[in-house]
Amino acid sequence: MSCEEFHALGAHEREPDDLVLMRLAEAQRWRRCPVCMVFVEKTEGCPHISCRCGHEFCHGCGSAWSQSHYNCQNN
Length: 75
Known about the structure:
Oligomer: single chain
Distance between the termini: 21 Å
Radius of gyration: 13 Å
Number of strands: 4
Largest sheet: 2 strands, antiparallel
Number of helices: 2
Keywords: Metal-binding, Repeat, Transferase, Ubl conjugation pathway, Zinc, Zinc-finger
EC number: 2.3.2.31
Enzyme class: transferase
Strand order of the largest sheet: 1-2
InterPro entries: E3_UB_ligase_RBR, IBR_dom, TRIAD_supradom
Cofactor: Zn(2+)
């Protein structure tokens, strides 16, 4: 994690356990919902993610979901 990424975290996300979780999430390619910030995992299929908060987004780039994201280059 770069210094810039660390400083972008909220104060409540800077504890050692939080940083371990962030590293694990990066290694496993988990993404955070841009609305509620919960981590989500894509195990198979298309990049369409429907979060438990109801927000739909592209797993590859994090943008709000649209049909054009089926071929997202970030997947």
